[in-house]
Amino acid sequence: TPIQNDLVEFYTMA
Amino acid sequence: MLEGKFDQASLLKKIIDSIRDSVKLCNFNCSQNDGITVQAIDDSRVLLIALKMDPGCFQEFRCDRDMVLGLDLESLGKILKQGNNEDYLTLIAEDNPDSLLIVFEDKKKDRISEFSLKLMDIDSDVLTIDDMDNDCSITMPSADFSKIARDFKTMSESLQIIVTKESVKFKAEGQIGSGSVIFKPHTDLDNPDESIKIDMNQPVNLTFGAKYLNDIVKASTLSSTITIKLTDKAPALFEFKLPSGYLRYYLAPKFED
Predict the structure, then answer these.
(1) B93-111 burial, b for 16+ CB within 10 Å, e for fewer?
(2) Residue B165 β-bridge partners
(3) In this structure, what are the phi and psi dihedrals at residue B75, rounded to the nearest 5 degrees?
């Protein structure tokens, strides 16, 4: 089963 | 002072209905040049909402100094239900406000309804999302995408989107079996919004949570078309155009472990 990724890991905090 | 008057209350109603199941609290950032912008992440940190209501979304818009309005969308939704879709809707806030004034005006009758909504201090992380090159971009009727997201959710927790030069395929596999819908690009000259456009630099095959896609398609009431931008192993962008501005959803994909 595919695992759901965390969106925040793809971007940097402003 | 902020004063933003919508020609039709229905626009803000639809926008709030499209996001309030995903995020409960969010900051409305108001400025003269950008209008009202919102960035908010859902509690599970899978879906991000980016809303831009340009001054062009409003019949009249003025914002003398930048301000942030911390809003509980459930409460705002309750107030928005009090007005009729066709009413003028005006948002009014003084400088350093502790409440937002919401005024409905019936266009035919001499009826004015005023509501005051308490504002909140909301701490929220803001993410920098750079415009990146996408592997694929699909523009299609939002009603078609909405039907797929709703129908396939009854079969599976995940929806696969597979794009090649010739087609976009939506595929779901569940306990009871599997299904797929394939769309090929076509141009409808009589009804351009019915067209399907596929721009592809590289084929992609991505999987998304059906629950989140179902939240996203609530915005189909805002625009007859949706643009989906996909990049391998990166969040997808689902965009609905507003009369001036946009409502975007960024959704993290699922990967095989």
Answers:
(1) beeebeebbbbbbeeeeee
(2) none
(3) -65, -45
Give the strand order in the sheet containing B88-93.
B60-63, B2-6, B88-93, B99-105, B112-118
The Cα of A1 is separated from the nearest Cα of chain B by a number of Å equal to 6
pLDDT averaged over chain B? 96
DSSP bridge partners of B36:
B30, B53
**Which residues lie below 8 Å from residue B192, measured CB to CB, with a gap of 6+?**
none
Contact status of B255 with chain A (Cβ, < 8 Å): yes
- Residues in B closer than 8 angstroms to A8, CB to CB, are 41, 45, 125, 127
pLDDT in tens, B117-143: 999 999 988 899 987 889 999 999 999
Per residue in B23-59, pLDDT (tens digit) is: 999 999 999 999 999 999 999 999 999 999 999 999 9
For chain A, state the CA radius of gyration. Answer: 10
ipTM associated with this complex: 0.93
Task: Tell me which amino acid residue B238 is.
Answer: F
